[in-house]
Write a structure and sequence with these properties.
Low-confidence stretches: 1-41
Shape: globular
Number of helices: 20
Strand order of the largest sheet: 3-13-6
Number of strands: 14
Distance between the termini: 38 Å
Length: 553
């Protein structure tokens, strides 16, 4: 069997992921006798999972395409390196019943589902997965997965058990989740430590420490130019959603979670942005803005403008992500040989430790029609896809990017990714650096290692790589979150509810406008009115729909 390139492990992380399919539409063996029409047990078919289908079987699916798809050498979405490999190596003839641009996909999929004309394997949102399972239209994959998934596939899919379990209904596995990483997106506090050292400031342990550091950065001339031109803490105008200059990590210090869903004391799902803890966080931001600790123009600055403040050496602290040292700070480190930054865990405003919150890293599910004759075929494709993550996978880029630069990984059919791949890379790179031996590293890890060695040899252009995968680094912080199991996941991971589709965009725009006005000085009563308005203008109905979804999980 051909091996996927290790490069695919990196490249698929940024690609949109595809659908999968399985077997012919003949009656299957997946009976659901539960009187409430919920999924029950099924028996795995007797097959040799390692054997090629001979003669080949047809497998139907649907999928989208998008503008980033490029083709060469006569390739099409129906005929390319992946479809050829499925046929030649697995004996699976992948046949798309239809393909549409991504903008039309959900509508086309919903129409097809309504007609009952389902392919062998479906790409579904969580809500669609739940609805089809409720209507007894899906094959229960519990036994098929347990019997046929390779050890490597299981290890990858279940690195984040919370994410994997979102594909279960009544403890039965009703789909293969398209896993990715939740921990990579956790919030981190980035601070200029050369300024801290100059001003003799201690590392932040509390929210009060953050405020004091911001105050010192504004009032004590950390850049030494005898001008009051430095900024304590930076946000963009999109601070509720920006991953590099956002406020999610700040609000988590008040145990508040903007634009996320959490459970209240009675176990009901509630929208984080309308909870009283948000009011406390806004009050402190308002005080900091009034004191001049926050950029007075944050409400009109986009990410590029705030990044300029970092690069020019005027901004000393911000809440960002794991890639911020490379994406935001690198040019400052290159321009100023004395500039030094460090990543810190987020801090709390009280005695309870602050926990960052990530999104459930599953946007798609690969589900099999109950009528599938060969439900195990999806596992054959899964195992094939996972081979690129094996430690001994060859460094061939055939399934990633072609020699001429075409991203063929976008043609992929089924593509879960390891939740802890980058964190594990960090661990492996550190071991290799300590031993001065990179022989055990994968191709991807070796590239990080080489760039870090280059930085430590004096090349400031690789400073950001060291501060992401080396130490001290972003992944030092993420590792601490994971080791302490100190992170949360958004409580809602279903698709958009009907009222979300109709109302959520306008509600979130109102949220951003109100929060900005309060930070810049409007009365905190404005937030109280926002909560009332949010409920009246659709939030109450959205909350009801979210709780109806939660009751089915």
């Amino acid at each position: 069997m051909k091996r996927k390139a290790k490069a695919t492990a990196v490249l698929t992380m940024v690609g949109m992921l595809m659908l999968s399919a399985c077997g012919s539409n003949n009656s299957g063996n997946n009976n659901l006798p539960d009187p409430e029409n919920q999924p029950g047990a099924s028996s795995a078919p007797s097959v040799d999972i390692t054997a090629k289908y001979d003669p080949p079987i047809d497998v139907t699916a649907w999928r989208y395409t998008e503008s980033s798809y490029k083709y060469e050498n006569g390739d099409t979405i129906e005929d390319n390196i992946y479809t050829k490999a499925y046929l030649n190596d697995l004996g699976i003839n992948l046949k798309y019943t239809w393909t549409v641009p991504i903008e039309q996909f959900e509508q086309k999929m919903n129409v097809t589902i309504a007609s009952g004309d389902l392919p062998d394997v479906m790409w579904l949102t969580n809500k669609q997965l739940t609805d089809l399972a409720d209507n007894d239209m899906l094959y229960d994959l519990t036994d098929v997965y347990e019997q046929f998934a390779s050890p490597l596939a299981k290890e990858i899919l279940q690195q984040d058990q919370k994410a994997f379990d979102t594909a279960k209904i009544n403890d039965r596995l009703m789909a293969i989740p398209k896993t990715a990483s939740a921990v990579d997106g956790l919030q981190i506090l980035h601070i200029r430590t050369d300024w801290m050292d100059k001003l003799k400031l201690s590392e932040p342990k509390t929210m009060e420490d953050v405020v004091n550091i911001a105050r010192a950065f504004v009032t004590q001339d950390p850049d030494g130019n005898n001008k009051a031109d430095t900024i304590g803490i930076g946000f963009t105008k999109s601070f509720l959603t920006d991953n590099h200059f956002g406020a999610a990590g700040y609000f988590a210090g008040f145990h508040a979670y903007t634009q996320k869903w959490v459970k209240d004391d009675s176990g009901n799902m509630v929208y984080g942005s309308v909870q009283p803890e948000i009011r406390e966080g806004l009050q402190l931001l308002q005080e900091m803005y009034k004191e001049g600790l926050i950029d007075q123009e944050f409400g009109v600055k986009d990410r590029a403008k705030v990044t300029e403040s970092v690069v020019s050496g005027k901004l000393g602290m911000f809440y960002g992500g794991m890639s911020s040292p490379g994406a935001v700070i690198q040019d400052n480190a290159t321009n100023d040989p004395n500039a030094e930054w460090k990543a810190f865990t987020i801090v709390s405003a009280d005695e309870v430790k602050a926990a960052p919150m990530g999104k459930v890293p599953v946007q798609l599910y690969y589900a099999v029609s109950k009528k599938s004759k060969n439900p195990e075929a999806i596992i054959k494709m899964l195992n094939f896809s996972m081979e690129g993550f094996a430690p001994d996978a060859p460094a061939d880029t055939g399934f990633g990017v072609s020699e001429s630069g075409v991203p063929v990984y976008l043609y992929n059919f089924i593509g879960p990714e390891p939740a802890m791949k980058n964190l594990n890379a960090h661990h492996n790179v550190l071991k290799a650096l300590e031993a001065n031996d990179s022989s055990s590293l994968t191709t991807e890890e070796k590239s990080y290692y080489d760039r870090i060695v280059d930085h430590r040899s004096g090349n400031r252009a690789e400073w950001g790589q060291d501060r992401i995968f080396g130490t001290p680094s972003s992944f030092d912080v993420i590792d601490q979150y994971v080791q302490e199991d100190n992170y949360l996941l958004d409580g809602y991971y279903g698709g958009s509810t009907p009222t979300m589709v109709e109302k959520m965009a306008s509600l979130q725009q109102m949220e951003e406008e109100v929060f900005t006005k309060v930070i810049m000085g409007q009365s905190l009563d404005t937030f109280d009115k926002f909560v009332d308005d949010w409920n009246k203008l659709g939030g109450e109905q959205i909350t009801k729909e979210v709780n109806e979804w939660a009751a089915k999980q």
